Amino acid sequence: MRPLDETRIAATAGLPVEDRRLECAGVTTAVLVGGEGPPVVLLHGPVANALHWRLVLVDTLGLTSFAPAPRFGAALNAFLARPDGATYDDLWRVCTFDLDPLRDAMGARWGALRRYTLELLEEPDAMRGLGALMEAFALRPIPAEQLARIAVPTALVWGRQDLATTLAVAQAASARYGWPLHVIDDCADEPPLERPEAFLAVLAEAIDRIEVTR
Length: 214
Description:
Elements (H helix, E strand, L loop, with lengths): L2 H10 L5 E7 L2 E7 L23 E2 L11 H12 L3 H11 L3 H8 L1 H13 L5 H13 L5 H5 L7 E4 L7 H11 L3 E4 L6 H4 L1 H18 L1
Parallel strand pairs: 3-4, 4-5
Antiparallel strand pairs: 1-2
Helix pairs in contact: 1-5, 2-3, 4-5
């Protein structure tokens, strides 16, 4: 077993999912499968993995051109140029409102997630694929006419201190498309990890509102 596979097993330990490997267009792809009912396929963003999910638009990319705050942009560029432990930690410090309580709360899982991400990016094609995905899906906005065609009830959840895609972007999208916006204080762009209790509360509120509108 490769060290990367061992790290992935440690990172997913205890989660109610099955870890699978699929061949997609000739590329070996890791997939986590869980739950019941009709299938829903979720694709994570750059410098992320399937351990980050919850199921609404949470501090999402694509609503506008990617133009993060300078501090976030500098940390992201440093990580992409040299993905190591130091640049990883620096990037997470701008992805969160306060990193230290998050690391304390996650305990051993934080170390497993950190090791898995860094070991994954040592794979020969990982950084090249990351760059291609960011170019295709993160840097440019989804055309407004496509967003306007979304017919299903949609909710936005945002960290008030998000430096990657600021709250103003979410407020503009909420006003333009009529999507309810739920804001979490003392939180940047990782609400499910940084403020899990507050995130679950606004998620329940968003789901309740969606069910009412159907």
